[in-house]
Design brief:
This protein is 34% helix and 18% strand.
């Protein structure tokens, strides 16, 4: 499984590396300060279930998520696989106008990553774990959405061996105010 994921990620490494470099150079990728933690009650299982019945129900009840990604980005394709394995239904559209998608979604520049997902009025940007999205949808907050800025190693779709860099899942509102929703 790891070999297939690594080959798929490497097949499109150049566009992802370039985006990552742009995000870092422009200061868009925040420093991840939180300690990496295990959250067993919200862990997505390989069969698509979760350790929490509420999250499983949220996944089952979720409308189809529209995902926009570059046709050449391997890490985005791996994140799509992660979401489908968790049980989400996705409608994936490859596009060369990711900046336009992000601008139309009202996504603040500092929160941008490589792919953008929309469901209802919510925006999900980047390599957010499926269980976090499920919990967010179950809570149905008044926020605009969630983002994992940049491309942290170890986040879904960005797996690289056993390495997991700490990262924050950022919640944001329509005015651009942000807060840490969860740290991993």
């Amino acid at each position: 499984m790891f070999e297939r994921r690594f080959q798929k990620m490497c097949a499109a490494a150049v566009p992802c590396v370039v985006l990552s470099a742009v995000l870092i150079v422009t200061g868009c990728a925040p420093e991840a300060e939180a300690e990496n933690r295990e959250n067993a009650e919200h862990t997505v299982l390989a069969d698509g279930g979760t350790g929490d019945a509420t999250l499983a129900a949220a996944i089952a009840a979720a409308p189809t998520i529209k995902v926009y990604k570059s046709p050449t980005c391997g890490c985005c394709a791996l994140w799509v696989d992660h979401m489908r394995e968790a049980g989400f239904e996705l409608d994936v559209e490859d596009t060369h106008d990711m900046l336009g998608v992000k601008m139309d979604a009202g996504l603040p520049l500092q929160l941008q990553s490589c792919h953008t997902a929309l469901v209802g009025d919510y925006v999900f940007e980047g390599h957010i774990p499926a269980d976090v999205i499920a919990r967010f949808l179950a809570e149905a907050p008044s926020a605009r959405g969630l983002a994992v800025p940049g491309m942290p190693i170890g986040s879904p779709g960005m797996e690289f061996g056993d390495r997991v860099d700490p990262y924050d899942v950022i919640q944001f509102d329509a005015e651009g105010s942000t807060s840490v929703y969860e740290s991993r």
